[in-house]
Amino acid sequence: MKQLLLGLLLVICLSCQNHSSNSNTRKRKVGPQKAKVESPKKIGDFMGHEGSSFVWTAEQTPEEGSSYPKIVFYNEYARMQFHGQCYYWFFTHHYYTGTDKIELVWTFKKDFVYDIESLSQSNGVKKFPHYDDVFSEYSLVNDSVIKVKYHFPEWVKKVNELEKYTVFPDYFYLENIDLN
């Protein structure tokens, strides 16, 4: 009886091995492999998701010394860090068709120890952002550079002058993060 069961078990095991090797051969493709062609990146590809984010930073002059401001885009908002102890969250609109841009809306929540007071003032300029105005547009130049178009350029220039560093840069650069 034991020999019969052992023989039956051996037949079943061998038939399973033959079945699995046959299915592998059927799945294999014959012929040259096609190279994967990546589609051009869109700014939406660089939006942060739960557990991961892409940090974009300004390139400052040696006199300015720091790599602030920094911006991270999410599905419905952007988090901007103006310096080490000043964060602003702005609502955004992301357009997938045509221009592929992100618009930053002048509605914000802030968390700071040292605020940038010039952001909430006209600074002597007639045209400055008010609540719910589209403040700026962000578009991808390449996979590591974003160009910014400001809708209040005179006010932006004045804020940058008053703060003595580039609060609102024309370009942001993808920050290199070493994961090792």
Automatic annotation (TrEMBL):
Chain spans, region Disordered: 20-39
Keywords: Signal
Signal sequence coordinates: 1-20
Protein name: Uncharacterized protein
Organism: Flavobacterium stagni
